[in-house]
Every structure is written in structure tokens, then in C-alpha cells.
């Protein structure tokens, strides 16, 4: 029986993990890997494949299909979603003809509200929760550059059939994707959100990369205050996170390439639309729900909101 896996969003996350899947199953008669792409990215992959550049090697992967036409894409068994969070609704509604009642969604977005948003669009489908730790980005159309050793993918669900979850884990494992099927996926996703939200907010607000933040006492103080505020919010929400989550997150940052920055900061620098709503504003709004003061997050939101409006 043929299993068809769609990759929506060919950026640093979707491009990297989708590329590993496409490379592994290129000769398979059991799996088809479908890249959902458009414009120059679609043209580049169709002509030359997807290139992945890491610190020590390059690979080129050709998917079974690369298209943004639902009729060409066809019905999907799994859909791995990794667009920007502001594109969730538009991108998924455009694929309505590709979704059956058995399609399972795996969101790999930066925010924590994607599962709820996708379930609103497709209430009859299983929508997993997931997150990744990776430093990767688009270098040019059809080319993904990955920096450093991190490439962990976590996923899980409280409701999806365990057989489908284990099948997906086997698919990842056989493609050399470092993936983990975890029981406490809500906490795992929030641990990642704490990392990326504070980092995105700090790098974009300070206009500094990771090394600059770590090496400046004043910048590091802003970053740590953001961490303190978001971990306090998580505690008030009742999430069971490690007691030393702030120190764990700082240690993760210190292991990240010093010349790297967040994807939100890169978008701000490039003058593109950026994920302020999911990564900063969401935290401020959640704080309001619980009548919490989050002054550092509010300060960041106020400044970055002006960049959206200019």
C-alpha cells in the first residue's frame, strides 16, 4: 500500500527534513514524498532537486512530486506543515482537495497554537503536536543551509492511533531523521516555544545575533528577563516543565552557532513579514488572560509592532 507524505513549506525546517525523506525514499515503491512548493523554489527543485548543505557535506534530493496544484499533489496520508505561522489558514485551505478523513497533520511551526488552528479548519482529522530544534535556512531557491549539530524532531498526540504514530516514527527513523515520539508532547512543545519565543523576541528587538547577546551583559539581561516571564506564564498555565528550564534554555543557546540568529530576526532585517503575532504577541495576550504583567515582552511587542506598521 502506497503511503504519500506531503511537505508544506520548503524553508529551513520543511526543506531539511523533507529533503532527508525524499532522499531516503527516492527508490521506494511504498512511499511517495511530495514537496508542496511554488514559484522559483518549485522551478529549482523540479530542475535540479533540493540541495541541502551542512557543515560537512551536501546532498541532493528529488521528491516524487513537486507542485502547488492540488490535483497534481493528490491525496495525502500525512501532511508535515512548516510554513510561517501567518500562512497557516491560507496554505492549508488551498489543499482541501488533498485532505481525506485519514490524513494526519504534523505541524512543525514556531508557535504553540498551530494544532488548535488546524483542528478548527479540519475538525475531523488527527492533528499531532510537534517541534524541531535546528538552525537552518534558505540559502537560495531550492537550497537549504544547515548550521551546527542540532536536528531533533519531537512529535506526539493524546488522541491519534498509536499505530499511525509508530508508523510515522519508523518512516523518520529509516530516513535517518533524529525523531522522538514522546508522551508529554505539550510540555515538549512549550519547552521549544520558550526557547524560540525568547530568542526571536530578543534578537529582533536588540538587532543582534546569538553571540552578541551572549557576550553583552545588557543584552543577555533582556534575554533572561524574557525567559523568566515566559516560564512564569507556563507555570501559571499549569504546564509541568523542569524547575531549571531557564538554565536549560540558556545552555541550549550557548551551544547554538554564535553567528546564527532567529528566523524572525532574519525576516525583520530583510523587510519581510515576520511572525510577531505567534512568537511575541501570543505571550502578551496569554499573560492578559491570566492577569499577569509581562513588561519585557510588552516592551518588545510595542517596538516591533511599529516595524509592521511602517
Automatic annotation (TrEMBL):
NCBIfam families for the chain: apbA_panE
Cited Gene3D superfamilies: N-(1-d-carboxylethyl)-l-norvaline Dehydrogenase, domain 2 (1.10.1040.10), NAD(P)-binding Rossmann-like Domain (3.40.50.720)
GO molecular function term, any single one: 2-dehydropantoate 2-reductase activity
Catalytic activity: (R)-pantoate + NADP(+) = 2-dehydropantoate + NADPH + H(+)
E.C. no: 1.1.1.169
Residue ranges constituting the Ketopantoate reductase N-terminal domain according to the UniProt record: 5-157
Reported function: Catalyzes the NADPH-dependent reduction of ketopantoate into pantoic acid.
Species assigned in the record: Flavobacterium gillisiae
Full protein name: 2-dehydropantoate 2-reductase
Family classification: Belongs to the ketopantoate reductase family.
Keywords: NADP, Oxidoreductase, Pantothenate biosynthesis
Entries under SUPFAM superfamilies matching the protein: 6-phosphogluconate dehydrogenase C-terminal domain-like, NAD(P)-binding Rossmann-fold domains
InterPro entries hit by this protein: 6-PGluconate_DH-like_C_sf, 6PGD_dom2, ApbA, KPA_reductase, KPR-Related, KPR_N, NAD(P)-bd_dom_sf
BP term (GO), one: pantothenate biosynthetic process
UniProt domain Ketopantoate reductase C-terminal: residue ranges: 184-306
Amino acid at each position: 500500500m502506497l503511503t504519500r507524505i506531503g511537505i508544506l513549506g520548503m524553508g529551513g525546517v520543511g526543506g531539511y527534513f523533507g529533503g532527508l525523506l525524499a532522499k531516503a525514499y527516492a527508490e521506494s515503491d511504498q512511499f511517495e514524498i511530495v514537496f508542496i512548493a511554488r514559484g522559483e523554489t518549485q522551478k529549482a527543485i523540479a530542475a535540479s532537486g533540493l540541495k541541502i548543505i551542512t557543515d560537512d557535506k551536501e546532498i541532493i534530493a528529488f521528491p516524487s512530486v513537486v507542485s502547488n496544484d492540488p490535483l497534481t499533489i493528490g491525496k495525502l496520508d500525512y501532511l508535515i506543515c512548516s510554513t510561517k505561522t501567518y500562512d497557516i489558514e491560507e496554505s492549508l485551505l488551498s489543499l482541501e482537495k488533498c485532505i481525506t478523513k485519514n490524513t494526519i497533520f504534523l505541524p512543525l511551526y514556531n508557535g504553540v497554537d498551530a494544532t488548535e488552528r488546524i483542528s478548527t479548519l479540519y475538525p475531523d482529522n488527527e492533528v499531532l503536536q510537534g517541534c524541531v530544534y535546528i538552525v537552518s535556512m534558505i540559502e537560495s531557491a531550492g537550497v537549504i543551509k544547515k548550521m551546527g549539530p542540532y536536528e531533533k524532531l519531537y512529535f506526539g498526540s493524546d488522541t491519534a492511533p498509536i499505530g499511525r504514530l509508530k508508523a510515522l516514527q519508523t518512516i523518520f527513523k529509516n530516513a535517518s531523521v533524529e525523531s522522538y515520539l514522546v508522551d508529554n508532547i505539550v510540555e515538549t512543545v512549550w519547552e521549544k516555544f520558550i526557547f524560540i519565543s525568547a530568542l526571536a523576541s530578543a534578537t529582533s528587538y536588540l538587532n543582534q545575533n546569538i553571540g552578541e547577546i551572549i557576550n553583552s551583559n545588557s543584552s543577555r539581561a533582556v534575554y533572561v528577563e524574557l525567559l523568566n516571564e515566559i516560564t512564569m506564564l507556563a507555570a501559571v498555565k499549569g504546564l509541568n516543565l523542569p524547575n531549571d528550564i531557564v538554565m536549560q534554555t540558556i545552555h541550549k543557546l550557548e551551544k547554538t552557532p554564535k553567528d546564527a540568529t532567529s528566523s524572525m530576526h532574519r525576516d525583520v532585517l530583510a523587510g519581510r513579514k515576520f511572525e510577531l503575532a505567534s512568537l511575541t504577541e501570543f505571550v502578551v495576550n496569554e499573560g492578559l488572560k491570566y492577569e499577569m504583567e509581562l513588561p519585557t515582552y510588552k516592551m518588545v511587542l510595542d517596538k516591533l509592532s511599529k516595524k509592521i506598521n511602517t
